Structures are given as structure tokens and as C-alpha cells.
Amino acid sequence: MTQTTRIVLANRPKGRPQPTDFRTETAELPELQDGQVLLETLYLSLDPYMRGRMSAAKSYADPVEIGAVMVGGTVARVAQSRNADWNEGDIVACGNGWQTHAISSGAGLRRVDPDVAPPSTALHVLGMTGFTAWAGLGNIGKPAKGETVAVAAASGPVGSMVGQIAKLRGARAVGIAGGAEKCAYLVNELGFDAAVDHRAEDFPQRLAEACPDGIDVYFENVGGPVWDAVLPLLNLYARVPVCGIVAHYNDHGETTGPDRLPGTMGAILSRSLTLRGFIMSEFMEAQMGDFLTEASAWVAEGKLHWREDMVDGLDAAPEAFIGMLEGKNFGKLIVKVADL
Amino acid sequence: MTQTTRIVLANRPKGRPQPTDFRTETAELPELQDGQVLLETLYLSLDPYMRGRMSAAKSYADPVEIGAVMVGGTVARVAQSRNADWNEGDIVACGNGWQTHAISSGAGLRRVDPDVAPPSTALHVLGMTGFTAWAGLGNIGKPAKGETVAVAAASGPVGSMVGQIAKLRGARAVGIAGGAEKCAYLVNELGFDAAVDHRAEDFPQRLAEACPDGIDVYFENVGGPVWDAVLPLLNLYARVPVCGIVAHYNDHGETTGPDRLPGTMGAILSRSLTLRGFIMSEFMEAQMGDFLTEASAWVAEGKLHWREDMVDGLDAAPEAFIGMLEGKNFGKLIVKVADL
């Protein structure tokens, strides 16, 4: 018998999640049936969308039930197999959630080749966040050569891929991030054309200076005051993939004025803007294979760079997650659950 | 020598236009040159966009200069021709503005066949407003069979075409209009599936009842409180062609709270909505011919209905225009400038 340790949702948070909204449990897993594999979690991805799943509000995905294991993308090792498609020791990308072990029928497992890149990259550059950037740009943003692509939370796993893919497509990449260290990273290590610190007092003016030809694609994943600075810079026919509005995830109740909607609707009308919300699952079945082919080649050619912020042990997940919602991490936040 | 009578912009209105913002003048037209035609205006279209052109504010089109002829779509007869492409008596759609006669090089004239439909329809069902509805639905709304299409200002020239084209494409049409008479007209004469009076106190609830399967396409041409009632009804992947926000045309300065933007952005994200602003000129060159072919066939088959609100004589234009901005007309507002 195998024991799994897991972190479940104890309470639905009101506003900022607290450590007490999570609870750690252990459970015995049943014997493997024919066709099943036992998976040992190596890496757990922590992502902002999980905050939404902790709420009961209607959304594109069902909420996590109280007492249920927190959802999450994982990389795991096949520890035992009674499935002919999988061998002990295979590395897979899967969605085990916040737990050390899980049993799978094999459905939905994606093989990870450790010779292409470190397996943890299956959680970002060669995984969900990379695909989110690739699919949002490819299906909605559609940057043309020479156009300007702006992205906020640009040092994060989605934003850093948005900028790098924009560059690979021949566009100009402008990143928005918090603090000088992250901005330097964008330009010096990821190759962005410019980076702007949203904490600067004259942020709107600095952003305008960084985008002398306006903005053709704004990859929206933060909302809030950054949007107010971006809106006047959007060009005629600009495209805005709306992938997240982290600034509002902890909102509850009515927001105070002024009412910013008429200004946004007026800009949509007068500049023929496109705003399109999406989550990557819309495009996953049709396009994930193409993405992995293209992105794996980029990785092999050294054209994609990334940064991981790895914390150790499943117990560290709640605190790391709460910190991430406040922007404390720098790089893709990953929990190392077991040694590779 | 031919004399033209024309109405020019005398002053830029502050708020509601006044009769004194217009001035009537007469002028002698020069002799026709080779290649030119003399046009006699038969019908002048009056449309809300003209209010914007009276202001100096930056928009997608240049303002009318003080002392210049008010712009406007017209149907005219060729009164004299020194152009081999046009014969005396030909009927054309053109943009003569608010005047009785004009000289043209022939560029931009569109032939109107009086055997297809009454020539005044070239100003609405077979003209700009019809094309606006057709292009917004075809390029952005893309209603599928069985989907629900909602439109506000539904008894107006754009809205009435949106609903009728939606029906012809196999979708369900729900119109929003002001007052019982207009709502009855939508259902009984235009064939909408349902009509909802936005003046009703329980308007949001009535709209929800009229859209039991939600809304897949909302053709936005009013903004304001109607949007707040529509937003919760929009389905996953709903499309919103943004064609006008009349409710905000008179806004100035900061709008008071609550801030409605986070709610709209949250819906865009969680329901993968598309909002896309447009003006019909974007699609005109590529698609106007296809539109006229399809819509002319619909007219010939009796599948499109319309209502004209015709006033007599160019002198009546200013008062009719001012009344239109207050919603006094019922049907496409047209000035009959000369007998057909």
C-alpha cells in the first residue's frame, strides 16, 4: 500500500487566502488495477488561476470542493505500472494536484523527454504557461513583423514567453514588471526591446516612451492601473488577448468609481480594438502538438530562456502560493515534491 | 448655370444642436468640365454620426469645417453628363451632403437600379446602415443557426437589419427598443422572436426571460445600462460587435462610480468573450459588392422590411436632425430633397 500526502481546500478564502484555508492530510491509495499506473509527483506548478478555483463563483472551470485536493499541473514519475503504454521510471506531465502520489488510468498523461530539457520545463516553457502565451499570440494577438507587443507581469512564466515568442515572430517586445531587477532581467536575459517598471510614479509616461509607435498587441494578464496606462497607446485595430486580471482576483463586492468602462468601450469603438478572453484549454486539443514541436526546437536551439523559483517540499506550497499572489516570486514558481 | 442650395455648419454646438448652428446658402455651380456630371439630390440621409462630425473632437473622421456643407449620404439623379460612364437620368448613391446639386467626377458614384427597390433604400437597407449590420454580423458576430442574437436600438436602421439578417441566417433575434409601439413593430412587422422595452422597470429580468438560452451575439450600439443587463446573459464564446455607444456620446469629464470595468473584464476572461469595435468603412471595399448582391436578392424576395420616416424639403433637415437625436423619429430618417 502507498501513502499519499495531500493538501486540500479547508475554507473558501475571502479576499487574500490564508494558510488556514489549506489542510494537509494523508491517505492510503488502493492497489493498482490492470491498466493503471502509480504516479509519484516530482514537481507541482503553482499558478494564479488556482485562486479562482478556490472560489465558488461561476467560472470556466468548476471550483475545488471544500475538502478536495487542490488542483494543479505536475510532473511525475511512473512508480509502478500495470499499463502497457507506460514503464516504471517514465516521466510524465499530468494534473495530480497538490499531492505526493496519485493513481492514473493513463488518460491525459503526456510523455516528457528529459533529454530535450529539464523535466520541470514541462510546467512552463514546454507546458501550460508556454502554451498559453503561444496560443494567445497565435490565435488572438497575431503580431506582424515590426509591430509592438506589450505584456505585463512580463517576468512571469506567461509574460516572459509572450515577449520571447513576439521577438521570434519579428515583433518588438515591451515588458512591464515590478522593480528594477525584473526589468533588467527582461532586457538583458530575455531579449525584450524595452522594460518598464509599473511601480514608477511616471509609469504611464515611461510606457508611452517605450512604445513610440503605440501598441499593436497587448497581452492582458493583470488588469488594474496597468490597463489605464496601456489603453491610450493602443493602435487602430490593436488586439488584446485577455488571459488574466490578477489585480482583481481578490476583489469582492462593488468597486468604487470613477467608472472606467465608458472610456474602455469608447476606445474599443473609435480604434476598432479587439478584446478576446481565453484560457488555453480552448486551443489545447487542436494545437498543443504544434506548440510542443515548435517550442522544443526553440529550446534545443537555445532561443528560449526561463527562470524557475523552486521551493522545497509540498508543505511549502500554501505559503509560496500566497506569496505569489502578492508578486513575491521571481520566475516560474514550482514546488519540488520529490527528487528527480 | 445651375444654382445649388446648401446647408452649412454655422457654429459648433455645445450639447444639443440648435437650428442656429445651421445656415442655408445658395451658390452658382460652374460649367461642367469633360468627365464631370451634374447631380441633383433626391434623398438625403440623416444619421447620428453627423453629430460627431459637427464637433472638433478627434475621431475616425475629420470634422466638418465651420462654413462647410454638412456631410451626408445621398441618392441623386444625373441631371447632365459629360462622362461616358453616366447618362442623364441615371440614379446614383453618393455623398453630396446637405445640398440640392453637386458636380462630381464620377468617382465614388454607385449605380442604383430603381427596378430592384425604391431608390431611397440605397440610404438604409441597401446602403450604409444595412451594410453596417451585415458586415458586423458577418465579420464579428458570426451567428450560427439556433444561436441568440440580441441588439439594442432595434427599431433603428442598423438594429432592424441586424435582427432580420440574424433571422435569415437561422438565428434567434431579440430586439431591445424604447416603448410598446416599437417593440410591437419588431415582432409583428420585422419578425423578431422577442422584443424587450428598455424603459420597463424590470428590464434586466425581462431581457433574461426573452433569452432563455443566453446571448451568443450582442450587437452593441448603445452602451449604458443596457450593457449591464446584457453582460450577465452572454454565453461562453459570445461575440460583441461594438458599433456605437450612443448612451455616452454626451459624456464629458470623469464618470462617477461604481467602476464597471472590472466586471466587464472579468466576464471577458471567464466566458472567453470577444469585443470588437468597428466602423463599416473597414470592410466596405472588400465586401460592399457581396452585400449588395445578397441584400438585393432578399429585397426582391420580400425577405427584408423597412420603415422610412421621410420629411419634405431640404429646409426641414436641421429640425428633423435635432429631433432624431432625441429619438423622435420612427424608421430611417430621410429628407426628400426633390421628386424622383
Could you walk me through the main structural features you see in this protein, from its secondary elements to its overall organization?
The structure is a homodimer of 340-residue chains. In chain A, α9 links the parallel β14 (308-312) and β15 (332-336). In chain A, α2 crosses α8 (281-300). The mean pLDDT of chain A is 94. Chain A has two domains: 2-123 and 307-336, Quinone Oxidoreductase, Chain A, domain 1, CATH 3.90.180.10; 128-277, Rossmann fold (3-Layer(aba) Sandwich), CATH 3.40.50.720. The first copy, chain A, has helices at 49-53, 128-141, 157-168, 180-188, 203-210, 225-230, 261-270, 281-300, 317-325; strands spanning 2-9, 22-29, 37-45, 74-81, 91-94, 101-104, 110-111, 148-151, 172-177, 194-197, 215-219, 234-242, 274-277, 308-312, 332-336. The relative contact order of chain A is 0.15. The two termini of chain A are 22 Å apart. Chain A is α/β, with parallel strands linked by helices and 340 residues long. In chain A, the strands form three sheets. In chain A, strands 3, 4, 5, 6, 7, 14 and 15 form a seven-stranded mixed beta sheet that branches. A six-stranded parallel beta sheet of chain A has the order 10-9-8-11-12-13, sandwiched between helices. In chain A, strands 1-2 form a two-stranded antiparallel ribbon. The first copy, chain A, is built from nine helices and 15 strands. At the A-B interface, α7 and β13 of A face α7 and β13 of B. β13 of chain A pairs antiparallel with β13 (274-277) of chain B, so a sheet runs across the interface. Chains A, B: Keywords: Oxidoreductase. Chains A, B: One of its GO terms (molecular function) is oxidoreductase activity, acting on the CH-CH group of donors, NAD or NADP as acceptor. Chains A, B: Pfam families: ADH_N_2 (PF16884), ADH_zinc_N (PF00107).
